[in-house]
Amino acid sequence: MYQPNRRLLLIFSICVAWAISSWAPVFKYLTPARAAGAMFIGLVLIVLGMNRLDRLNRQQRQIGRGWFPLLFLGLAAAFAVLYPISLKHTVNIGSDREDALRVELNAVQHHQYPYDTRTFLHNPPTPLPGAMLLAAPFFMLGHIAWQNFLWFALFFLFSVHFFRYCATALFFLAVFLLFAPGNLSDFTSGGDYLTNFFYIAIAVTLFTRSLHRSFYACIPAALFLGVTLSSRIIYIVVLVPLLALTLQRISRLRASVLFGIIILAAAAVTLPILAPHPITHLLQQLDQNAAKLRYLPSAMHPRLTLPLLAVAVACVALFARMDLPRLLLTFSAASFVMLAPFVATLVVQDPRLRYVAFYLSVCSLSFSLWALSRFERLSQQDEVGPAMKTPMS
Prior knowledge:
The chain is mainly α. It has 16 helices and no strands.
């Protein structure tokens, strides 16, 4: 009897997640009235799309995988049109996320400390050494933005295998990549913020699926996860629900060894870049984000309390039965606790900073993966339910 209510709640939550990822650029480029109209139309289409998705998932005949290359071609076409424009900065001042990686890698190439550099917007670069390492091959090719094609393609494969139905995966990718203006803008401007989330999600999935194999098969997955964790400091919090899941599947001894490998891999990538004073330089690099907390009361000590609160939220996973969707839900809640306070205060205090709402995209993406997996499970239960009743009728 609660199935319809759950379905409505999940539809509403997906609408909220899309709105979080989309409202800032919509209101930036359109008048308030047109922006409100565009958001309303987008939300209506999501509701209609999820109702259609529910009916489609109950059918035995499913969509073909040929839709995914078509969607990827749509993203590639958008990149081909918008990326050159973003380099010219004719529409707006532009994003400096790609430039942050470029100046960092250029400094490393010349044996200089990367975090003393500045982007073309005079911002200090924030990507950690893991992001630099993964972007290095594309830096050598001359275009760091090309890494987005690789990780977007791999994330397509991740989504196909994460969801039970191809239709759910296609709906998720279309809504949150192609038709979410903030996320599309990051892709077409060569930004790495979404890319960081993509390879974290892929690395966590590879690690969890390796747990039922031999110990030596887990080592490459643990090493890759350690490298990806050294991309942005926010992803450290994912280790808490991942530890909870790992302890539920393997012994404590094996889990401790694997997590030791993860931490050693992250340290091996990070600390040499920060030498000869790695701890001091790491703290200095993390302090670059302190300006984003300027509107929060200093008495709250947000630089300390927000990460601790996020870890406390993540620790809930230690008392729950974990799987990959619940791990993503836990990370979404923990990261939201860490990011939402400074995002909200910046937007309220200075509407010109509404672009910082994009930081919440990782929260909405990870939450939507969980929500849509639950949504298709409800469809599956409705499909199985009548089949179980038929022999008794």
